[in-house]
Structure formats: C-alpha cells, structure tokens
Amino acid sequence: MALLQKKPEQPQVDFSRLPRHIAIIMDGNGRWARQRGLPRTAGHAAGAETFRTIATYCKDIGLEYLTVYAFSTENWKRPAEEVSAIMGLLKKYLLEAIDRMERDRVKMAFFGDLSPLAPELRALCQRTAEISRHYDGCQVNICLNYGGRDEIVRAARAFALDCMEGRADPNHLTQEQFGGYLYSAGVPDPDLVIRPSGELRLSNFLPWQSAYAEFYFTDVLWPDFTKGELLRAIAAYQGRSRRFGGV
Ligand code: IPE
Ligand code: IPE
Ligand code: MG
Questions:
Q1: Within-domain flag for 8
Q2: How many Å apart are CA 122 and CA 227, to the nearest integer?
Q3: Residue 41: which domain range?
Q4: Which of 148, 158, 171, 232 has the maximal Cβ count within 10 Å?
Q5: Range 72-80 contact pairs with CB under 8 angstroms and sequence separation of 24 or more
Q6: 192-195 and 21-25 as β-strands: parallel, antiparallel, unpaired?
C-alpha cells in the first residue's frame, strides 16, 4: 500500500557549507555496459550523460570547482576502438558545450597533456577553455590524458628549467610555489574526492592536491550516479571532522 511505503531517505545537506571543490573519478562505465549486455562504448556514452547532469547540478547548487577524471595517462593501454570511442564522445560533448556556453556560463579548464590528442580535439579543448576563461561561475576541470605522477614530474622539470635559467632558486622552493607548476595552478585543493564503482584506489588522480581531501567511495557505477548520490557524498563530507593535523 502506497501509504506504508518508506520514502527513500533524503540526505541532509547544508547548502551554505558546501565543499568548495569536489573531484570525481568517473569510473564504472564498462561494468555498467557489461551488466546490460552492451558494448563498453555504450557505457562511456551513458557516463558522458551522467557527467552532463552532475556538472549542471554542481553549477546550480553553487559549487565553485568540479574536477573530473575523464581519461588517464594509463587509459591508452585500452583497445584502440575503445580509446577512439572515448575521444569521439569528448568531441561531441565539447561541441555541444560550446553551443550552450553563453547560456550555461560554466568555466572549463583541462588538466593533462593534450599534445597526443587529435588536433581537432585539442583545438576544441583550447576553444572551450578560451571562450569560458572569463566566466566566474562554477569551474569544471576535465582531466584528460592526466596522470598525477606525470603532472608532478612535468612540474619538477619546469621548475628545474626555471632554476637553470635563473628565474627560480631551489633553496627557496615552497609547496605553494611548486603547486604553481601543476595543471591545477590557482585552483584550491579538492575538499572531497568521490570514487564510484566500488574501487578503493586513487588510480593516479590528483595525488598532490588530495593530500588532505576527504574521500567518499560508493559501489554505484558512474552511469547510475545521480544528484541524490552526490548529495549523499556531500552529506557524508559535512559529517566529517577535518583536522589537517591539528586537534
Ligand atoms: C571509466 O570507466 C571511464 C574511463 C576510464 C575512461 P571504465 O571504462 O574504467 O569502467 P570499468 O571500470 O571498466 O567498469
Ligand atoms: C580511472 O579509472 C581513470 C578514469 C576514470 C578516467 P580506471 O578504470 O582507469 O582505473 P583502474 O584501472 O581501475 O585503476
Ligand atoms: Mg575503470
């Protein structure tokens, strides 16, 4: 009887104390597809839709920064057809994003080495970043050909070069200064890192920036991730006590 049915519990979120920055490892697309007897690429297509929904929702609730892991430096190990399907979906997403950019006013940035991407996709990334550079709403960072260790090595290289050319001094390097060499320069560290799909690892995602992040893991696969799941993660975050080494 309808009257006796228990309502699904609404996560208690205090929207006046949202984390500033949420980072998400968008994982589980392949398993989602397999469960339905579909090709893995269908899972990536469904995952792209989830990304659109969640990014829009983050903007609507007033989140300042959302960073998502879309393709890692290790994901090139996958079959060529899967890689090219993912790249095709990214292209489609960016073309649509450019179309609605003036309306959505989401600032987009990319973390990762874009140089191995097809020139057309690379140009689209540059264009979306350029058009939205001056937007001041939610900033969405898409990690594309991103690897945390790769990011740190690149930063070390750039810093060493600055030292060799007299622009920097190794004896005075601070954490803040080093952070300025990372893809995330100028973006505050993530407060909350979410990984769906049941895996309990970082897989090379933002290792430097997540040093003091709160982690939220769920078995839900990324294509099934909903606004409600996001609110559950935020509610869990709000129930934590962040001490940063203090008492
Ligand atoms: C995440 O989903 C998407 C990318 C890594 C590009 P997966 O494709 O890793 O999905 P699973 O982990 O195989 O289920
Ligand atoms: C991490 O997921 C990368 C992205 C979600 C883009 P993976 O599926 O590549 O991670 P592993 O292989 O399970 O560690
Ligand atoms: Mg995976």
A1: no
A2: 30
A3: 17-148+189-238
A4: 148
A5: 72/143, 72/145, 72/146, 72/147, 72/203, 72/204, 72/205, 73/112, 73/113, 73/145, 73/146, 73/147, 73/150, 73/204, 74/147, 74/203, 74/204, 76/145
A6: parallel
Which of 27, 34, 74, 197 best tests ligand 2's pocket when mutated (most atoms within 8 Å of CB)? 27
Atom of ligand 1 lying closest to residue 44 CA: 3
pLDDT for res 5: 67
**Does some domain include residue 87?**
yes
Q: What is the mean pLDDT of each run of 10 residues along the chain (247 residues)?
A: 65 96 98 98 98 97 98 98 98 95 93 98 98 95 98 98 98 98 98 98 98 98 98 98 96
The enclosing domain of 87 has a CATH number of 3.40.1180.10
| pTM, two decimal places | 0.96
Q: Please tell me the distance between residue 27's alpha carbon and the centre of ligand 2 in angstroms.
A: 6
Structural domain tally of the chain?
Answer: 1
What are the pocket residues of ligand 2 if the criterion is a CB atom closer than 6 Å to any ligand atom?
25-27, 69-72, 75, 199, 201, 203
Amino acid at 10: Q
Between CA 155 and CA 99 the distance in angstroms is 34
